[in-house]
Structures are given as C-alpha cells and as structure tokens.
Specification:
alpha/beta, 8-stranded antiparallel β-sheet, 7-stranded parallel β-sheet
Length: 1537
C-alpha cells in the first residue's frame, strides 16, 4: 500500500497562474467560499478540513478520475514535467461525513507533477452533488500524504540544505503514483465509455477552428483603398413622420440616397422637428464599373458582380480605416498600425458616375463642321470643274451671238448715216457741229467785229468832221462798202470753214462712239449673260448635287453621330465609376462630428480594413473552450460524460417527488415536473419547449428555486433578447440578485447592470409590499367595479342564450351550407387540378413546338415521341447529303441559321487559287465582249437609248464584280481555315475540293428540306395542341359552373347571416367572450373555464370574489397596522437620494453576493473596468465568470447554437440545463453559402468546397437534438401546453410535434376565447376572413422567379400581391372594429387592442419585394406598440417573435421537374413560420407544389427511430388541417383572375 502525495503548498496562498484554469485564486480563498456553502459543517482552516478528508497515516479508498482527453506530458511554470488536471474524490467515511453534508461530495483538482516523488499539485477544491453520475473513476486504497509546509533536508555531497514539501512521511519512494500507474491511468481512465468518438469530435472541431483562424487571417489581410471618407450630420425621424411630410422631407434625404427612406428609421441631412441627431461615417470606394461588371455570379454577365457581393459581405463585418494596409503578427494581432474603428454598418449602396462627355460633343461638332466643309469643298470643286467645262462650251456661243449683234448694229448705223446727215436731226451733233463752226468762226467774228467797230468809229468820226453831205455820203459809202467787203470776206471765210468742217465726220464719229458704247454695252451684257448662264448652271449643278451633298453630310453626320454614340458608350462603359457608399454608425453616437473628423484626420485614412477583434475573440474563446474540455479544465470533472455519454446518467438515483414552494403560481403540471426534474438533476437536464409553451417561465422558476438553495446560476443564450426575457420574468424576491454582463462598448442598456444591483434589490422588496398596499386600499372601489361588471356580463349572457334558442334552425341551415360549400370547394379544387394537369400537358406540347422551331433535340418537359421523331428525321436528312453526313445533330441549329453567301465567301477563300484563274479568264472574256459592243470608229461606249446599251451595261457590271472578286480572292491568300464557319461545321470535308464545291448547293437544299421536316412535325403538334386547348376550355366551363354553384350557396349563406337575429347573436356572443376575457385579465383571475360553457366562467368569477372578500376581512385588522408601515418602506426605498447613497454604500457588497449572472454564449468571461465602466464607479476591480463559483448553467434557445458555442458557457458550471426546441431553427453556419469563387486563392488543403460542406454539416448538427434523443427520460421534459395561439393554429404546427395524440394541447380552457380575432373581410362580395376561422391557405398558381440573374433567392409576384391585398383588407376590418368601439385604443391609458401583424417569407428577396410594395402605404388598424409593429421579414429573423396575425409566403413554385426542394423540406424553418401567430394564420403558397414536393422524413422527438415518420406528406396534412378547421381559398378569391 503506497502513499498518495498531495501538494497543497504551492497554491496555498496564491492561485494557479494559468488562464486556462478555473482555480486562479488561492486554496485558502477557495476554502472561504466553500465554507459559506458548508455552513456549520465547515472546519476552521483548510488544513483542518483536509486532514478530515485525507487523514494522515490512515488507509482509505480514493476515487481517481481524469476529465481530460489530452494526456500529454507538459512542463509547468516551475520547469517540472506534469500531466494537467487529475481529480481525487475521497469516499465518504465517518470523518468526512462529519464535515460534509450528505448531499455533497468533496473533490480536489490538481496536476500530476513528476519530481523526486510523483505528487499531485492541488490547485482547486470543490463540492459536487453526491448523486452525480460518476463515470470513469478508479478506486484506489492508499494513504494520503498532504503537504502544507516545507522542510529542510541536507545534501550529503554539498552539505547544504534545501527546502522541499513536507509530507510528514519518512519513506518518499513508496508512492501510489508511479510512472506505470500514471501511464495506465492516462491510457485507460476516460470520462466516457468510448473516448475515441469524443476525441474524433474534438479533432473535427479543431480542424474547423484552424480553418477559421486561417480564414480570419485571409480576411484580415484584405483591405480596400478608399476614395474618400466623410463624417455626416444625420437626423433620424420615424417612418410615420416622413410619410406625413414626404414631399418636403424627400429633398432632405441624406446625400440624396433613396435607400435612407426605406427603413423604419428615415435618415435626413437636415434637422427637422422631432428628429434625433447622430453621426454617420461615409466611406466612398470608387471602382471602374466595367471592371466590376466583367465578373459576375450570374450567366451572361447579368448576375450580381462578384466584387460588389464580396464587398457587401466584407463590410458586413467589423470594419476600420487606416493609413496603410494592415499587417498582422503570427497570433493575428495588428502590428504597429493606427486604425479608427467604424462601428456598425448602417447602409451599403452605390451610385454610378458617368464620365464628362463634353469633350466628345465638342469633337463631334468640330469633326462634323470639318467634314461638312470638306464635302462642300469637294463638291464646290466638282461644280466649278463642271462649270468651267460647261462655260468653255457656252462662252463661244454667247460670244458669237453678241458679235453678230454688234455687226448688225454697225450695219444698221452704216445704212442710216446718209439719212442722218441729210436730216441732221441729231441735236447733239447739231450742237457739236455748230460749236465746232462757232469755234472756227469765232476768230473771224472777232476780226469782223473789230473791223466793223473801226468802220463805225470812222463813221462816228465823220459826224465830227464837218463834211458836206456828199462828202459825208461819199465817205460814208466808202466806209459802208468797206463794211460790206468785210462781211463778204467774212462769209467767204465762213463758207471755207464750213467747207472744211464735215457733218459726216460728226455722224461718223458719233457712230463710232455709239459702236464703242455698244461694244461696251454688249461686252457687259455678254459678261452678264455669261454670269447668268454660269449662275444658272451653277444653281442647276448645286441642285443636282444637293442631294448628294446632303446625303454625304447625312451619312457623315450619322457616321459621326454613330461614332459619337459609340465613343460615348465606350467612354461610359470604360470610364464610368461605380462609387460604393458605405455608411457606418460610430460605436459612440454621442460624439460630435468635429471630434470624429479630427480622429479620422489624425489617422490619415486611406484603407478600409477588417476589424478582426470580435471574430478573433470569438474564435479564441471557442478554441479555449475546446482546449479546456480537451485538457480537463472543467468545474465538473464528469461534464464530458453528460455531453458525450448521456445514456450513462440512467445510473443516477434522483428524487423528483419533492414539491418546492412555488414562486410562480401559474405553472401547469408539466412545467412543474420540468422544474422538479431540473432541481433534482445534479448533472444535465434538457427542457424541450415548443412554441408558446412557457419555457421562459420555467427557466425563471428554476432560477428562483436554485437561488433559494444558495446556488449561483448563469443564464446564457445566443441572443441578448432571450436572456433579457428570462431576467424580466424572474420573480421579484429578495433571494434573487441578478447581474447582466454586457460590455459598455456594446451600447445596450439593461436594467440589470452593476449600477442597478441596489435598485433591483429594493425593487424586489418594494414590489410585493406595493401589491399588498394596492389590494388593501382599493378594495372597496375594486369590489364596486367587480360587481357592476359581473352583473353586466350576466345580463349579456342571458341575451345570448335567448338569441341562440330563437335562431337554432337558421344556424343549422347555415352549418349545412358551410359543409356543402366546403365539399363544393373540394370538387372545384379537383376540377382545377384537372385543369392544371391539362394545362401542363398543353404546355408540354407547346414547349415541344418551341424546341422544334429552335432546332433543339432535347429539353425538359417535352413530348419525347415527337422529339425522337425530330431527331430521327433530321439525322436521316443529314445522312442524305454527302457534305453533311458527319455533322453532329447538335450542330443543326447552326446549319439552319448559317448564311449561304457567307459560306460561299469562305469557300472562295478556301478555293482562292482556282477561282482567281477562272476569274481572270472571265475578265478577259468580258473585256472582249465589251470591246465588240463599242463604236468601231470612235471606240466610244454606247449611250443610253442605243440599241446595245443595256447589254453593254450588263457585261460592264459583271466585269466590275469579277474584278472585285479577284481582289477579294487575292486578299484571302492568308485565310485561316480553322476560324471559318465551314471548318466549325464540316471539318471532315475541308480537304475535299469536290465536296466543298457542292457545299453551298447542298446547304441550300438541306435548309429547305429541314424546314419541311419541321413543318411536318409542327403540323401534327398543332393538331394536338388545338385538341388539348379545346379540352382546357371545356374544363374551364366546368369550373365556371362550379364557381357559380358555390357563389349561389355562399349568397344563400350570406342571406341567412344577414338575419337580424343571427347577426345579433354572433356579435353579442363574440363581444361577451371578449368581455369575459378582459374581465379575467383585469382582475388577475388565472383559473380556466370551458369557452363553450360560459356558465363555468361565471362560477369562477363568483368563487374568486368570495375568496377575495373573505381574505380581506380575515386580514383587515392586521393590515391596518402593516399597510402604513409598508407604505413608509416603499416610500423610503423609492427616494432617489436614498437610492444613490445606498448604491455607493452597498453595490460592492451586493456584487459579492450576486447569484444570477447573464451573458451570451460567446461573450468574454472576464470583464475589467475597461469593458464594464460601472465597475470603476463602485470600486470593483473585475468580474471573472470562471471564478464566481457558478453551480448551474442554464442556456436558452440552445437548439440554435453549435456545439462549440455551447461549450463556452457549459464549462463555467457543474450542472447544465439546456432549454430549446430542436423542431425549430438549427444552428446556422455563416459560411455555408460560400461560392466556388470564394475558395479561389485559399489553401485547398485547409478549405475547399468539399471540406466546407463537411464543416456545414458539423456546425449545423443540433447538439441539443443529439442529447435529447440519448438522455434518459428522467433528465428531460417536453412542455406540451401552449399558451400562445388559438387551438386551430396549434393544430397546424402540431404536426411537427406528434399531432394531437402525443403533441401539444392548449394551455387554458378559455384560450380560444382569448385568441379571437373578430375580423371580417369581404372581397368582391365574398366572405374571405370570418371571425370563426383562424387558419387560411391561399392557393397560388404563379411560378416563382429569381430577383435577379444569378441570385439564389426567390420571389413570387402573385404571393406578394396576395399578401398586400390581405394587409390592406385586414387593416380596414380592424379600423372598422375600432370605429364601432369593439377595439379599444387609448394613448393616455396606454391601451392598444388593435391586432399586431407580421409577414414571414421563406426568402429574403420575397420580403424585400413585399416591403417595396408596401412602401408609402399606411396601416392605421394595426398595433402601434413598439414591440408589436408590422414586421415583414424572413423566418430566421422571426424566431422568438410573435404577432396576432401572421401571413406566411412560401414563395416556391418552380417550373418543370428539376428543382431543389431542400428549403421547404427544412421543416424546422416552416415550423417556426407557422407557430408565430396568436389569433390568425394565413399561409400563401402553391398547394400542388407543396403537397407534391413537401415530403419529409420527420424523426421522432425522443429519438425512437421506430416511430420516425418516413416520407411524411407534412404539407398535405397541414393543408388538410386548414381545410378542416379553416378555409382554403385561391389567389383569384383575393386578387381576382
């Protein structure tokens, strides 16, 4: 028998330094915590306690276990080899029983340390429940040797002493823990029966984590260069406020982005009344659009650009901005890089900015003007040349004319000159002649005058002479004779002059001058005529060439415009910038814009980077959790047993009969059973909570009971909302001291933060006191109201009974009519099904027709017999042509579409050498023919009108064509056969010139005969289609007849319903049930009653009143003393100054006594002052969940979490309670939809499509389901009473829980009364929604489609239209009830009884489509409560939510038989969709598709595979249930044909 050496010394005063350990506090501190649990059992010191548990020098049995799976030897902080985490549990004996309660076992946790002696270095002490199943222990009889101090031992060689642990034994070598023993423990001792399975699971998860670390590294390497960054002042208003002022506010949308108007919160750039201000950071990334669109996910470039999709996915994560691209160290930490973290992405959008096209417009104008000038210049030259030639011919002609005119004029003058001279009638000549004479005669006149003057003077002198008369007469006569002589001489001289001056000369000169003038005049006229002729000819030429000029200018304009358009298109295509605008909301929205701008400016932001902190932290936590369970770092050493071998829990003896003192009286029997089993479980408990079964209530009760037992509880879930729901439901009792741990940076407010510890403690005290005060003080008033309302209810009840008796016969007829209408509807659906089949048959023939027209030889949904005939006939046709016999049949489409002339051209190129010779020969022949047709004398070509003109033109045209063909053939000398159409279609004949020469003719003949084959088959098809169309018409007539019959029955039903008595009974009965429901609610009556037996409700009311009255009287005297005291206490506890003072004084104290913690599954486990700012305010250093001594971990909504995420909180406690519903959404792997392109550039050995599929299966396996199917019955409970919805709605989703036999039941007898919707909707005079029906199926026949090319999401326009009509009509119906006072709405009293509504879509794009259709439509008839507003969303977003009315759009209705029905077979998703409604469920979908494709394998809830429903037609069952309990309608009933 050996010693078991236990070293308590190393960790006695300081805890483990390993962050993997739970035991980081000293053993002494741990014992102080343990003493609080032990109470009076505890010894004074740890050493005393250990001496009782591990008595020295006494042999006893110890149970050794190793919770780890990693048993590798490692080196501890002292440099010693060790194996971490071994557990020793001493068996109970008299000593141990003295210090330990019977319900506890004591364990120590330590590390096997190899030194001079192999000991266990103890680091943790723990109490575990004694009834825990303890698998994998080795029972060893030995003596414990415990070291709490050191001793000195001498060294025989050196003589020095050294200190070693003092175990109090002499012989240090007789140890139990030998190398062989430890090796056997490591090899054989595991906490599970089949460790290899667990290790394999761990290995798979480790590979997954390694991949996520690798992928995170790749993500972190990526960055995007940003174009611009800006901080925007943003102002948020509600959608309602925006709609009221949309015309004004639409101009204020931030950056003019329309998407900012589409959400519930509208974002403006301008502050308006009622707006809230907050900053947004806008990142702009500019990319070349062409480059972006060149790589898309869809076919033919029509899908979503990969870059855009990847950027959208990338920026969905945490982002930051930096000045340079990020660099990371080996651990994934960012190296030496300043970055600003952007916060949550608010909006992702883009705008396309086209390039400036002004330069192209200017260039076009310049080129056009230049081209026009060039054309004008060219034609001006042509016109001038032609004009010159024309004038060269015209000028001599005109000149001759004018020369003739001049000659004729001269002739006329010559002929008339004698007459002119004779007549001398020309006054000008007369004047000239006389002037010339006068000029010549003037000297003679002067001389004559002079002589005469002398003579007169002499005659005058005669008078003075005294002469005789005779003398005088004589002299006078002499003088007079002299005068006469002078005159005679004068006239003689004049005559001489006249003889010398010729009048003819004057007329000759005149004629010469006239002729000269005439010449000039004619020259001018000639020139004018020439100019006129020239101008006229030029005008004619301009008119002649105007069309050509205009045509050329038009051609140039069109060409330049075409080029401009092409250039613009090319420029737009090549240079358009797609600006991606990504808006982020900073983590601190209270920061000012200027401060943010300074921070970003300091960064000098150039790159958008991935902020990997959150993802890195999550992966690190996951890896730490995995390594913890691998390394045995667990609070409960038997935890792996629960998780991997839950079936072994059957060995545990448990007491579930003990009835606790309930905190929540409203729990049903099943819920109480769940609480009892959870409390009795010291290991694992599973709560299966279907929709509306009150699992949150159960969690709250379990938590309350555990705190009463002095245990600490951790509430965890994937979402904050689930944790908040539990905390809000916790009973308000002083024993519960709750604390929610949420990092301050998260921005989420909670009523359970550290600073609210005192408030909540006081609230728990004052809450109960206030309730008692209200009950006492308002009793008389309550009694009066109670009595009045009870009498009014009784009066209404008597009226209802009387009306019911009076209308019994009418009701029976109405019931009979409803049954008949239902049967007729079934018949109508059968006829419609027949029509659908007929239409499909017709469609097959039409599709076949189209295939044959398109020369397709196979295709989905075609009539095979015709397709086979077509294949055979065309194959035979191909074989009948030597050139085409080897052409594959799939090339026929190309043969049929090929241009024979193109083939000829290619053939010419292929046979170019032979052809050139023949062409040149023909060229010579044609030249000879043309030469023979020319004029033999002049060698001129025949002109138009000549006999052989037409023949000449024909050969001339042929010669031109031959010359062009020679040029073409010569230019084709380098023709590439491999690029030719001929080579592509008939490569086998490319070397056979003979066959090649036949090809054009054979191809022409083939196309003609092929069309004949097509026409022949199409003719037969047309006959068949015509016949089928006739059949469709007959069926449609039958449908019309049946619809008419149904309409008549409905009309009769409506007429009966319009009976005053029936209407009064229905309205009064419905109103009475509502009043009773409201009465029970107002007076907190929780007892159940049968809704069909209202007398029972009145009995309950009377009993409740008697109980209340007697309770009041019995405590009246006592309350007179207590109530004033209670009021004072409440008043004191509610004073803010008292609260603040006590916060400062008692928060730290209460913090040390917190017993209910709340964190999310992937949250950090340690919170410092940096992460939780309230800690610093109250002097609290940090909070470490691992060291809080958590006893029980409760995880809600566990079915949505992966094993890895669950593992993180599970490790914190000793007992695990998992709450979920594995019939609802399973875990979702975030990378499940990685596309093939996403793997490019990644290491194929780490990740590929196949590996990722494996990770998808691993991650999405519901661990809760696996456990639930394996755990023994005593360790699980399924809640089976649901309180959420009307029983008919429950029956719809009850198919997923085993049906009515073993599935869910309603929680309360009067539940259906409480879930009445009371809405009536008529469309086109027909009743659609009726108060008595709560479930509807709207059958839609329109096919689905994709939102955009390449999208994997689906939309269904018809279903969206149906949903919108239903929303509008239900809104009207609710508004009408509000007007009638049947629905109460009061903002002052905070009453809103309007129904809430939601639309759930199976695809995100369908939700977006309905949101788009809903835009700008206001609904005033639906609830205005913040958490009840209209929501249009997907199934995933709706889990955990509910509404009074739910419309479910199933979307799927694919064409043809090739489709993926995986989504509708995910029954967990459909179950969530169908279980969200309280009062009315409307399912919109294709009945035919869902019933045919919706076949699933539904496993048994408890894992009994013998009870699995294989090939279960779940949708058929659901629709049949709706048809039985509610109504099945068609889209036509809602939106018309």
């Amino acid at each position: 028998m050996g010693y078991l050496y236990l070293n308590f010394l190393d960790n006695l005063e300081k805890g483990s330094k390993s962050w993997d350990d739970f035991y980081t506090t000293s053993l002494t501190e741990q014992y102080e915590v343990l003493k609080r649990k032990l109470g009076g059992y505890a010894s004074g010191t740890l050493q005393e306690f250990i001496s009782m548990a591990f008595p020295a020098q006494t042999s006893k049995y110890y149970n050794i276990s190793m919770p780890s799976f990693d048993r590798r030897m490692k080196e501890n902080r002292f440099g010693k080899q060790c194996i971490y985490n071994i557990v020793i549990r001493p068996e109970k004996d008299n000593y141990l029983s003295y210090i330990l309660p019977s319900n506890y076992d004591f364990i120590i946790i330590g590390d096997v340390t190899f030194g001079s002696v192999i000991d266990i270095t103890v680091k943790g002490i723990e109490l575990i429940d004694s009834k825990v199943a303890k698998f994998g222990e080795k029972r060893v009889l030995c003596t414990a040797a415990c070291a709490f101090s050191k001793k000195e031992i001498p060294n025989r060689i050196t003589g020095r002493t050294s200190q070693v642990a003092d175990y109090g034994t002499r012989d240090m070598h007789d140890a139990v823990l030998t190398n062989d023993f430890v090796a056997s423990l490591s090899n054989d001792l595991y906490p599970v029966p089949h460790p290899e399975r667990a290790i394999q699971t761990f290995s798979e998860w480790q590979k997954y984590i390694n991949f996520r670390k690798y992928y995170l590294g790749k993500q972190s390497e990526r960055c995007e260069e940003i174009t611009d960054i800006a901080v925007c002042n943003s102002y948020m208003i509600t959608k309602e406020a925006y709609r009221r002022n949309e015309d004004a506010f639409s101009a204020y949308l931030l950056d003019g982005i329309e998407q900012f108007s589409k959400g519930e919160q509208i974002i403006l750039s301008k502050e308006v009344t009622g707006s809230d201000s907050f900053p947004l950071i806008k990142i702009e990334i500019a990319k070349n659009r062409k480059q972006i669109l060149s790589d898309t996910y869809g076919r033919n470039g029509k899908g979503k650009p990969k870059y855009e999709a990847n950027l959208q996915r990338y920026t969905r994560e945490s982002m930051g901005v930096s000045s340079i691209p990020p660099k990371y160290d080996e651990k994934g930490n960012m190296k030496g890089l300043k970055a600003y973290l952007l916060g949550e992405r608010y909006l992702f959008t883009y705008v396309d900015v086209e390039p400036d096209l002004t330069a192209l417009d200017k260039k076009y104008e310049k080129d056009y003007a230049s081209a026009c000038a060039e054309i004008d210049s060219k034609y001006l030259s042509i016109i001038n040349n032609e004009l010159v030639k024309f004038m060269e011919g015209q000028t001599p002609i005109v000149r001759r004319t004018y020369d003739e005119k001049l000659a004729q004029y001269k002739q006329e003058l010559a002929e008339t000159i004698e007459r002119d001279i004779e007549e001398n009638s020309d006054k000008e000549i007369k004047r000239a002649y006389e002037a010339e004479l006068a000029k010549k005669i003037a000297p003679l006149d002067a001389q004559r005058k002079k002589k005469h003057d002398e003579i007169r003077a002499n005659m005058k002198k005669l008078k003075d002479k005294k002469l005789s008369e005779d003398e005088y007469d004589e002299e006078y006569d002499v003088l007079r004779a002299s005068a006469e002589t002078v005159d005679m001489e004068y006239y003689q001289e004049v005559d001489k002059i006249k003889a010398n001056i010729s009048l003819r000369d004057f007329y000759v000169r005149r004629n010469q001058e006239i002729i000269s003038k005439k010449e000039k005049s004619l020259a001018i006229s000639f020139q004018s005529e020439i100019e006129r002729i020239k101008k006229e000819k030029k005008g004619q030429l301009e008119v002649q060439y105007r069309g050509s000029i205009e045509n050329e200018k038009t051609e140039v304009k069109e060409r330049l415009q075409s080029k401009l358009k092409a250039d613009k298109a090319e420029k737009v295509e090549n240079e358009t910038v797609r600006k991606y605008l990504i808006y982020f909301r900073p983590e601190d929205t209270n920061e000012k814009v200027k401060d943010l701008e300074k921070q970003i400016e300091a960064i000098d932001a150039n790159y958008l980077t991935y902020d990997n902190r959150a993802e890195k932290a999550k992966i690190e936590r996951q890896e730490k959790a995995l390594n913890s369970i691998l390394g045995g770092y667990v609070k409960n050493p038997f935890l792996p047993t629960y998780l991997f071998s839950p079936e072994t829990l059957a060995q545990t003896v448990r007491d579930t009969t003990k009835e606790p003192e309930w905190c929540l009286e409203s729990l049903n029997d099943r819920q109480k059973l769940a609480v009892r089993r959870a409390l009795a479980s010291e290991s694992l408990f599973l709560l299966q909570g279907p929709p509306g079964t009150g699992k949150t209530q159960v969690i709250a009760e379990i938590t309350a009971q555990l705190t009463k037992q002095g245990k600490k509880v951790l509430i965890s879930s994937e979402t904050h909302k689930a944790i908040d729901n539990v905390f809000e439901r916790l009973p308000k009792i002083p024993e519960i001291r709750p604390l929610r741990l949420i990092p301050s940076q998260n921005g989420k407010e909670t009523n359970y933060s550290p600073e609210r510890l005192v408030d909540n403690f006081y609230l728990n005290i004052s809450g109960n006191l206030e309730k008692q005060v209200r009950r006492f003080e308002h009793f008389e008033e309550t009694k009066l109201v109670f009595d009045e309302q009870m009498k009014a209810l009784r009066c209404d009840y008597e009226k209802v009974l009387k009306l019911k008796r009076n209308n019994a016969n009418i009701e029976r007829e109405r019931t009979s009519l409803i049954d008949l209408i239902n049967n007729l509807n079934i018949e109508l659906e059968q006829i419609r099904e027949t029509l659908s089949i007929a239409k499909e048959e017709t469609e097959k023939y039409r599709r076949t027709n189209k295939y044959i027209e398109s020369y397709r030889f196979d295709g989905e949904g075609a009539v095979e017999i015709y397709m086979e005939q077509f294949r055979r006939d065309v194959q035979d046709l191909l074989l009948s042509f030597a050139c085409l016999e080897e052409v594959p049949i799939d090339k026929v489409y190309e043969l049929a579409r090929i241009d024979v002339e193109t083939v000829r051209d290619e053939l010419n190129s292929i046979l170019s050498e032979d052809i050139i010779v023949k062409l040149k020969s023909r060229q010579q022949e044609l030249r000879g023919i043309l030469s023979g047709l020319r004029d033999p004398d002049t060698d001129e070509a025949p002109e138009e009108g000549d006999e052989n003109y037409e023949e000449y033109k024909k050969y001339q045209t042929e010669l031109k064509n031959v010359v062009n063909s020679i040029k073409t053939a010569q230019s084709s000398a380098t023709f590439d056969f491999s690029e030719s159409i001929i080579f592509a279609l008939v490569p086998s004949i490319i070397n056979s010139k003979e066959l090649l020469k036949q090809l054009p003719e054979e191809l022409t003949a083939f196309k003609i005969k092929l069309q004949g084959v097509v026409n022949s088959i199409k003719s037969n098809l047309d006959v068949k289609i015509s016949s089928l169309s006739q059949k469709e018409s007959e069926i449609e007539y039958a449908i019309s007849d049946k619809q008419l019959e149904i309409s008549e029955k409905k009309k009769r039903y409506e007429e009966l319903g319009e009976n005053e008595g029936i209407e009064a009974y229905g309205e009064l009965n419905s109103a009475l049930k509502q009043k009773i429901t409201r009465f029970f609610r107002d007076f907190d009556i929780v007892k159940e009653y049968d809704s069909d037996n209202l007398e029972e409700a009145f009995t309950i009311i009377a009993e409740e009143w008697r109980k209340l009255e007697s309770g009041y009287k019995s405590t009246q005297q006592e309350n007179k003393v207590k109530i004033p005291m209670y009021k004072e206490i409440v008043k004191y506890l509610s004073q803010e100054d008292i609260l603040e003072e006590d916060r400062q004084s008692y928060t730290r104290e209460l913090f040390n006594n917190v017993n209910v913690f709340g964190i999310t599954c992937t949250s950090r486990d340690r919170f410092t002052k940096n992460q939780l700012q309230e800690l610093d305010r109250y002097g609290i250093e940090s909070v470490d969940i691992r060291t809080q001594g958590i006893d029980v971990v409760i995880i809600d909504e566990v079915s949505k979490s992966s094993f890895l995420d669950l593992l993180i909180p599970i490790l914190y406690g000793k007992t695990v309670i998992l709450v979920g519903d594995h019939r609802q959404l399973p875990p979702m792997y975030d990378l499940r939809h990685m596309r093939k392109d996403d793997f490019e550039g990644l290491d194929e050995s780490i990740i590929s499509k196949e590996i990722n599929d494996g990770y998808t299966a691993l991650y999405e396996e519901c661990f809760f389901k696996t456990l639930y199917e394996s755990v023994p019955a005593d360790f699980k409970v399924m809640l089976n009473k649901q309180y959420r919805c009307h029983s008919h709605i429950m029956e719809v989703f009850n198919h997923f829980y085993g049906g009515n036999e073993k599935g869910l039941t309603v929680g309360k007898k009067q539940q259906d009364d409480e879930k009445e919707h009371n809405l009536s909707v008529k469309i086109n005079g027909n009743s659609i929604i009726e108060p008595k029906h709560h479930i509807y199926f709207i059958d839609c026949d329109q096919r689905e489609s994709s939102a955009y090319e390449g999208s994997t999401s689906k939309v269904n326009e018809q279903e969206a239209a149906v949903a919108m009509v239903l929303l509008r009509e239900l809104d009207k119906a609710s508004t009408e009830l509000e007007k009638q006072g049947k629905i109460k709405v009061s903002k002052d009293k905070k009453i809103d009884e309007r129904p809430s509504i939601g639309v759930i879509c199976t695809y995100g794009d369908q939700a977006n489509l309905i949101k788009k259709k809903r835009k700008y439509q206001q609904f005033s008839g639906f609830s205005g409560k913040q958490d009840e507003k209209l929501v249009i969303s997907t199934v995933d977003d709706f889990q955990g939510d509910e509404r009074d009315i739910i419309i479910v759009s199933m979307v799927r209705n694919p064409a043809g038989n090739r489709y993926d029905a995986e989504f509708i077979k995910k029954f967990e998703r459909i179950n969530v969709a169908l279980s969200r409604a309280r009062k009315m469920l409307i399912v919109v979908g294709s009945r035919k598709f869902l019933t045919e494709a919706g076949v699933i394998d539904l496993p048994d809830l408890d894992g009994n595979h013998a009870l699995d429903k294989v090939n279960f037609h779940v949708y058929k069952e659901i629709i049949d249930t709706i048809n039985f309990r509610g109504r099945v309608l068609t889209a036509r009933d809602i939106i018309g044909e």
